[in-house]
Amino acid sequence: MIPEPYNPQVVEEKWRDFWRERGFFKAKTHEPQRKFYYLNMFPYPSGKLHAGHGRNYILGDAIVRFLLMRGWNVLNPMGWDAFGLPAENAAIEQGVHPRDWTWANIREFKRQFRAWGVEYDWDREIATCEPGYYKWTQWIFLKLYERGLAYRAKGKVNWCPHCEVVLANEQVIGGRCWRCNSPVEKKELEQWYFRITAYAERLLKDLEKLDWPEHVKKMQENWIGRSEGAEIVFPTEKGAEIKVFTTRPDTLWGATFLVLAPEHPWVPELTALEQRAAVEAYRAAADRLTEVERTSTEKEKTGVFVGTYAINPATRERIPIWVADYVLMGYGTGAIMGVPAHDERDFQFALSHGLPVIPVIAHPGGEIRIFVPADAFVSSLPQALRALGIPVGSTKDGALLANAPTEIMDKAASVIRERLTEKGWAAMVGQGWQIVFPDEVISIGSVAEERRALSRLKAIDPALAEKRTVAEILWAVPALRDFLFHAEFGPMLNSGPLSGTPGAEAVRKTVAWLEEKGLGNAAVTYKLRDWLISRQRYWGAPIPIIHCPRCGIVPVPEKDLPVLLPEVNRIGKLGLADIPGFISTTCPRCGGPAQRDTDTMDTFVDSSWYFLRFISPKDEDRPFDPDLVNRWLPVDLYVGGVEHAILHLLYARFITKFLHDLGWLSFDEPFKKLFTQGMVTYPAYWCPTHHWIPPKEVLPGDRCPKCGAELEVSVVAMSKSKKNVVSPDELIAQYGADTERLYTLFMGPPEKEIEWSEEGVRGCWRFLNRFWNMALAIISRAAGVREEPDPQALGTQGRALWTKLHATVKKVTEEFEGRLALNTAVAAIMELTNELASYAEDREADPRLLRSVLRNLVLILSPFTPFICEEIWHRLGETKAVLETPWPEYDPQALAEGEVEIPVQINGKVRVRVRVSRAAASDPQVLQDLVLADPSVRERLRGLRIEKVVAVPAKLVSIVAR
RNA sequence: GCCGGGGUGGCGGAAUCCGGUAGACGCAGGGGACUUAAAAUCCCUUGAGCAAAUUCUUGCUCGUGCGGGUUCGAGUCCCGCCCCCGGCACCA
């Protein structure tokens, strides 16, 4: 008889609607015992799904099928992040309505999910573009507005010139637009913001509670960017006081200048008449720079002196005020104190603009470096220094160099002073800077001393006439550079009453001193900025606000929600602002004529609460049912791409905390556990003339099919735009969905980025064929058998298979419940399959064991390949569906049976392997005795004296012998 | 620069949490069977090297980025480096 070949097309079509029709994926939200809320990040429905997307949905489907068999009441919904720019752009280009474009894509996505066997509770399907959903997005806006957490403000915003839209900070990736990668520009606009900064501290602190990948938590931590320090007030000659933020208040005595951001509001007021033109020109130039240009690390530090001075509140010295674009208006106070001796940027700035450098923190090494120019000292100096125990060297041009411990600095200074030539000088840097002259030593502890030392040096050496600061002179000596600037903590120097304070207490003591004197206070600053949410577009949730000439900004009353998107035939570039019928309305407060706000909300607002809506997706009176939500959330396991590590995940946490504060939610973190799956990469081919070429069309030798040019190959994440996608439709047609699913889960650890491999797919295809053939063979042999095997009655082979079965069940169960390394679970299942197949070769094989192992194998394989398993399951004579069958339990007893091979190490190397029963191997003394009695071990030990034996139960025995 | 993750065969990767036979599983390669042939399928084989043996082997040495350390034993732990990937980045 010719065996029936594996035909996935037939098998899969047979079961494709079975699970849905049986309602296995419908959550029973009103019975929340043993609830499990599993959630995949909902997709933006654009175009078609490719094999890379499968990483997310197939993984999720496998987990959910496992959970269902484990008896969980699983909520596993799916919806659509349906507002957004691509739909609108497609609509503008093709003249279709974005809604039609979006729903056509959604239909396509759903078709592909069905083909994959990826099932959801479709009764809960939601789309953010439906009025029944965005009504509540608008409601959240109103609630934020009520609490003062939504506000309108004018300011510099990120602007993508290509998308012609503003961007939130989180949507600017390395100075570029997150969608189109264009360099982002700055624009002065009045926009709506959400005050996410009010939640900065909680968003940071509560990360601790989350079972999230460490790197995602770190990314959020860095993004929130908490810094502790102080705010210090600097009086100015013009009267205004400038407040700066610093993390290093202990360096205040070294602040020799102030720098304001070009956008700082007080710049005009502080600018002297004669500097006005230069300052204005500088500010205008800074304004024109894109974010990429302005924040380029290699850029020379530019800036302009405003012509007036401030007073350093600690030293009471006059210090110049500058504007420079390395200071950002959006962080801290938009103004800094320049401490060139202990901040790398300030040091660069001081060097290029001739500003004095005053060291106020001792060099961490506890060492000083001595430099004496050639011809500046008498010949006995080296010897005299050596007499102090200081090793002395010299440069190529004859200058003297030495390192000395701090303690003998004063002694060294007097030794040097006595041995300088008449016009000689020397520098000692590290413990502050000392400039040694024949008649005195000037310690540079203030701007005044710096000026004096500089003029003396210039008077001595005409070659220094051009130098503007002592720092410039010393910087010219390469050997001193390491000692001129450092940003470490250390004992304070030249710091008036606080001089000598050790580094560990420096910040705390300085802040206390500042507070006592009323000069400043401890302060915390965050990098996080408020969330800019308004978009000048059509395809989004309209902002529910009315502008009334008499009443000002008036929120739309809740009863009037939703503010519907107007139906239009054509969408203009200006979005809602292009639609006159939408704009004019009446003021809800005074009844007079008024205008609607024409902005729509960032799509990330839509997605910041959707996980709540799934609980009661059709509720018309509330955004969600709070009782049910509080029983079902937080989400137990959230799976999605790491690209949302900051954006969506931060916003969703913020909105959750807000709704918690409002009293709607009892929890304040939406996602208890997060898993981020890796991207799938594939070679992408680039032709300089014909651009992206689909891999399939590429000619041998990586040539362009159109022009024959050699193509540039790069292995990158699958994407439609690079044409390097693998189509699930084609895979399913050729191998079936089970093969694609299995390969997707087997290709590597799910969290890692991995390259798609056609050969790998074929390996999984071969496996399923072997599995199919073996299963049918076993079914025909074990037809009619219904009893379970008796483990005690099995032979050695059977017993080994029995143990293997239980070990595999254990392994697979633990992977699903733990770290989700399903690739290793698949490997274990393959091993079991291989062992079952070789056991089945024995004509004497126990049919009860064959059937039992196959039955359990089908169950544990079913989350990976549900179609083939459902088929085999029913051919085994089962009447219930796989999903109605409990997940197999493993028997610890079975794992303790049979034999194990115990390696025996002699002097650290494995020399012998001994087979012992698992029972014997579990007792260290028994194991040790057995091993020492083994003939080949005795042979090895002949002539040696045993010094030590280590027996590790079930693992190995290690013998030390001489 | 800062933060995070990682470096294991020809390749993807196992073993890393909690030290205990390194290379599971799969791919690719080599050899063979079947076939007129090919595809498909099946079987054997594959870290590097050395020695004895000669045929079904046996034994030894080396081997998890580099250098040290702890230990009976290190891919795993500790210290110091190098390199790669990801995130942030003139954040005061």
Structure overview:
This protein is α+β, with helices and mostly antiparallel strands and 962 residues long. It is built from 34 helices and 39 strands. The protein has a 6-stranded antiparallel sheet, sandwiched between helices. A 4-stranded parallel sheet has the order 2-1-30-31, covered by helices on one side. Strand 27 (584-586) and strand 28 (593-596) form a beta hairpin. Helix 1 packs across helix 30 (866-875), helix 26 (758-781) crosses helix 28 and helix 27 packs antiparallel against helix 28. The chain is globular. The model has no long low-confidence stretch (mean pLDDT 90). The chain binds one RNA strand of 92 nucleotides through helix 8, strand 11, strand 15, helix 12 and strand 35.
Task: Throw out a few tags for this protein.
alpha+beta, RNA-binding
Computed CA radius of gyration, to the nearest angstrom: 37 Å
> Would you count the extended β strands for me?
39
Please summarize the sheet with the most strands.
6 strands, antiparallel
- Mean pLDDT across all residues, rounded? 90
Tell me the fraction of residues in β-strands, as a range: 15-25%
Quick summary of this structure?
The protein has 962 residues and is an alpha+beta fold. The strands form eleven sheets. Strands 17-18-16-19-20-21 form a six-stranded antiparallel β-sheet, sandwiched between helices.
